[in-house]
Amino acid sequence: MWKHLHSKRSIHRASSIDLGVYLKGKNHLLVHLRRFGGSVSKAATKAKARYRNEVEIVGRLSKAPEEKTLPSGDLVVELRIIVERDDREGVDTLDVATWRSQLRRRALTLKPEDWVRVKGVIRRRFWRSGAAVASRWQVEARELERV
Fold first, then answer.
1. Taking a C-beta distance cutoff of 8 angstroms, is the pair 116, 64 a contact?
2. Which of 31, 33, 43, 141 is deepest in the core (most CB within 10 A)?
């Protein structure tokens, strides 16, 4: 039974982070992210096998998945999954992106309130919004199934 619900280490360099969020109850959320990016020393290369970026989410869709064409021409299907909190009242909504064609097709068959299981990795996305640079965390789906 998981319970630990959030730990965060300070960010070193542009893309280093250590984040852990675990939850188990009616909905399941497992986020375990370790350092990635930046330069790698010999000691860090040996320790690299310990770094993991894995996510498994079981929840329900908040709205119908949306297919988008990016300025680069790439296609992505984005969906939002709702998971209840088991340590207090409320819910969390998590953004998920599917880039692979097979997963995009599968995602587009889903309807709001469908229960799904997503396995993937966490990515931080950056884009320009006017003169500013914006970013957000997003789950990149590697597996997607209706449950």
1. no
2. 141
- The Cα-based distances of 125 to 52, 96, 97, 122 in angstroms read 19, 12, 11, 10
> CATH homologous superfamily for 7-146?
Nucleic acid-binding proteins (2.40.50.140)
Write the burial class of residue 6 (CB in 10 Å: 0-12 exposed, 13-18 middle, 19+ buried): exposed
For residue 77, give the nearest of 55, 100, 57 by alpha carbon: 100
Angle at 118 between CA 114 and CA 124, to 5 degrees: 120
- Structure confidence by residue, pLDDT tens digits, 54-105: 999 999 999 999 999 988 999 999 999 999 988 889 999 999 999 999 999 9
The H or E element containing residue 143 is strand 132-146
